[in-house]
Amino acid sequence: MGMTPEYLIVDKELVREVTVKQFDHFTDRQPFARRNVDDLLARSLLSLKGDDWRKMRHNLSPAFTGSKLRGMTELMVQIGVQFTKFVSSRSNPDEPLDMKVTFRRFAADVIATTAFGTPSNSLQDSNSEFFVKGTSLMDFTGKRRLVILGYTLAPKLMQLLKIPFIPAELKDFFTNIISQTIKYREENNKSRPDMIQLLIDERKAQIQKCKDANKPVDSDTIMSDLDILAQAFTFFLAGFETVSALASIICIVIAGQENVQIKLRLEVDEAFANSEGGKLTYDAIQGLKYLDMVIAEVQRLIPVAAFGDRVCTKDLHLPEFGITFKEGDIVGIPFYAFQVEKRYYEDPEEFIPERFSEERKAKVPPFTYMPFGSGPRSCIGNRFGLLEVKIALAYTLAFFDLELNTPDQYPIRLDRKKLDNAPIGGFLLKLRSRENPVVDPESL
Fold it and tell me: What would the mean pLDDT of 335-346 be, rounded to a whole number?
């Protein structure tokens, strides 16, 4: 049946039932990869099932706590400063800038530093291999487009034919980087506060637990190198594209709504005025409440993930809904449809950031706003991603005025011929250095 669900949920209460209340009956997603075809994707948190998923989710959760994010903020802010210098250093400031490509460079540097513990220098080196390989991975043209379409329409057939979703040369590149990092740290007893280290430490704890219990240390009891590789790679795959796509779309909205840009700039300027040398703190970034509203409203109208699914893992009868789910049934959840439903949102097609103000967001009906999914299988890295987007946008607004490249770019119309949610007219914007920024960019 490919990606076609047996059921499509149109009742928000049934979304609650499937994703939260009866989660034990819907722990899995549709399998996207097989170990003998795409072992990195097959062992990732996105693809794992049942107890394997629970264990890995438990192992990864500490990487995304508030204290961990606070500790990562300084690293992200340093990249925000580099981002500002990168944009300012263009040879022709009047030439439109491809925001998605630019934010991909920012995202590559953030992920390389915070997850892999290795610099990518994507903002400093236009030919950074890390950036080039990441861009190639997300290239949806030519033969790659056929592979994407194949996995979208007939994933089982693609797996049966053993056509990998990830090209071998890209898999080898990321595998080598991560494997070398693991080997160096274990052989030299080195440590760094990032995702790879978290998983290395968890594996050490698992080994010690086996030894204390006089149990064999094997692949059934401890995390493998492949497990660590898979999580780090998936973190890059998700963060590289979703952060750059979301930040780019938001910039087009900001450029198209001058009143929104003015209000955001006032908020960001106040945060920078209270900073030390233009280095925003975690608390200052969290205090950008209007920016939170703008991001939330863009995610409602143009979500990076518009659809999700769950697989029933054991039979379940729900008499109040008149439905009996059988093991193996696929349940589709149209996140976007709920987010633009007039029963839940007044003027649902209109861009109104104030929907998500402190006073009004509590009135948003539960299970009608799901930009990161719903329930225990929602995106584990959503807080990390939002922090990254906020830093990228804060440094953009603090030092640049955003202008549309062409008048027809806004309101945004998505190009349905493309597979990556790209708007008609692309991601080109005019960024001009502000005349009197609160912080002198030369002092950064």
Answer: 97
